[in-house]
Amino acid sequence: MNPFRSVYNHFPHPVKNLLRGAKARLAGAPPSPVADLARLYRREWGKTVVPAVADQPRKVLFNSQFTWPFGYAEYTLATALQLRGHQVSMIACGGLPAYCELETASQQRPACAQCGASLTRVLNAFGLPRVAHRDFLTPEDMADAERLARETPIPILREMQEAGVPIGELAFLNLFSYFKGYPFVIEGKIEDVFRRCAGTAFLQARGMSRLLDAVTPDIVCSVNGKFVQWAPIVILARRRGIPFITWEDLNLKPCGVIFEWNGIAHEMRVDSVWENELKRPFREEEKRAIREHFNLWAAGANSPWVYYDDTTIRDAGDIRRALGLPANAPIVSLFPNLCWDSTSVGFEHAFSSMYHWIQTVVEYARSRPGIAVVVRAHPAEAKLPPEFRSSTPVCDFVRRECSPLPPNVFLIEGTSPISSYGLGAISSVVMTYTTTLGIEFALQGIRPWVAANAYYARKGFTLDIDSPQHLRDLLDKGVFDNRLTEEQVELAERLAYIVRFRKVFSFPFLEKSGRFAPPSFSVFALGGDARIEALCDRVLNAKPFIDIG
User: Fold this and answer.
1) How confident is the model over 528-548, as pLDDT tens digits?
2) What is the rounded CA–CA span in Å between residue 350 and residue 370?
3) Which of 47, 210, 331, 340 has the greatest count of CB atoms below 10 A from its CB?
4) How far is the first Cα of the chain from the last one, in angstroms, to the nearest whole number?
5) How confident is the model over 70-86, as pLDDT tens digits?
């Protein structure tokens, strides 16, 4: 398991922006070539590159808000659609008074004027029209947001909606990425940030509602779609019956991106194509490819970060001795996510949170001394740079909330060299929340018990937990034979192949350094680049975003 890559893939993109910026500065990467793009635009637009006339022109509204390295993906798509005769509009933030997605506990937000000027320069370089969200808000709206955020009692604010958008819930979700931990109690500094997030969510919902009224788009496209500046327009589009697309960078490939119709792209759902894909022949070379991919993944060879090394404990006997596990007891192992990344936020199904799930199993162990419960904290809790480590480590939570700890509960810290794969191999039950380990165990022939709404749940190779009582009943019955059949393993292989090789594609002309270098504007036009052509085809014809490039 490579914890860094699996976690990094699901960071909110402002956090990725910070990480990439630091990496680029260390590598001496060149700045983004906005000036070069502007020269191309002035030289070629309307001359060598002439917009086409579409038979059925569409209005496509892009929720840009501010610049970031992968923003070139949506600028490219918008330019390509414009060159095909469609009407595009790019939403600029225009300035928010209380809270901005570029702000975290370790990262200050830029000045609004500086941020807005940066976006304007890029959009001008592409020849893209902009509309400011701030222009759809009045001074009265600002006063309403400030008053609501300041005066509303927390329990009421948590449940509050504006224009059908659950602003309290969105504000709560943003706390995870802001504090890099689970916000157990909303008080003090956490309350201050929560109230500011709620105020911004209120303004986003109100302004985006009016903006949709004014633009009347046929399609809405937004990065992320899950947090305060991205979710309201997606929720409003869904409520109004407007088709929407979300997208996100996903570095399962170099400069990889993923798009999705009417869903959250980085959740990696395949539900819309799954039944049809089951009818498709699955070739031996595809099986070999996904096996090789995950072998490299486990070794850290297809990622910039390496976790396992010569000190890793892989042997079954060594793992048992290191933990002091009883010889004949069934082992029930839990593999949580890093609590604040996007893979564990907003996926609740059987439990109110990842911590609720862990606490339920640990407390169950008190009544079942004959089983051994092992909680393996995500290694990224200890291995990420300090500013990105969890502020609520799993093992600390268990010791605090489940004291005194039952003697048959064993904790593995994020710093431990014990292999998660080795632990899974000796376990009677492996439980996951949404971590990638769930699909990796299935590829090894081990059925994962899934406690949340993971993308790989309910696909025929998992045991899906529906409630705390359902979990207790399964453990009471001793459902400890969790071997998968060859047919079930193939289902996992199929799913993994779609997600890793067919949904994610390397975005054209975007380099690892963050530099975007198209040779000319003609590559955005009809017939200019096969990958851009395929992307436009999916957008204009409502096709699934698979097999691009």
Assistant:
1) 999 999 999 999 999 999 999
2) 25
3) 340
4) 27
5) 999 999 999 999 999 99
